[in-house]
Automatic annotation (TrEMBL):
Protein name: cAMP-responsive element-binding protein-like 2
Primary site of residence: nucleus
GO biological process: cell differentiation
Family membership noted in the UniProt record: Belongs to the bZIP family. ATF subfamily.
GO MF term (any one): DNA-binding transcription factor activity
Ranges where the record places region Disordered: 1-23, 95-124
Residue stretches of biased makeup (Basic and acidic residues): 115-124
Length: 124
């Protein structure tokens, strides 16, 4: 037999299966493609904006933590020299009023207030 296949008495011709595509208006197809490309670019732009904002917020958090770490290092070096920083004395005695009146409000108390206000965010 030649290229045709015989199955259960029927002759099958080789070629594409399924429905034949209807003749689609070429202009409409191009317009749908353009619209889809516009939407894709808009989604991409939003995604990059979100990621840039996320990076900047993480950078700010890193800077705040570095400042806090520097403050703790200074406290440790002062205690190694036998001095107790006034901030630690105030924290040990529970005298928060003393810190705010001196004008040397600690980053630790600020960060704890900010952390309490912000809900924890998980990576998705």
């Amino acid at each position: 037999m030649d290229d045709n296949k015989i199955m259960a008495g029927k002759v099958k011709k080789p070629g594409k299966r399924g429905r034949k595509p209807a003749k689609i208006d070429l202009k409409a197809k191009l317009e749908r493609s353009r619209q889809s490309a516009r939407e894709c670019r808009a989604r991409k732009k939003l995604r990059y904006q979100y990621l840039e904002e996320l990076v900047s917020s993480k950078e700010r958090a890193i800077c705040a933590l570095r400042e806090e770490l520097d403050m703790y290092k200074q406290w440790c070096s002062a205690m190694d020299q036998g001095k107790i920083p006034s901030e630690i004395k105030a924290l040990l005695t529970g005298d928060e009023q003393k810190i705010s009146h001196n004008g040397s409000n600690t980053k630790a108390s600020k960060n704890s207030k900010v952390a309490a206000d912000k809900p924890e965010r998980r990576n998705e």
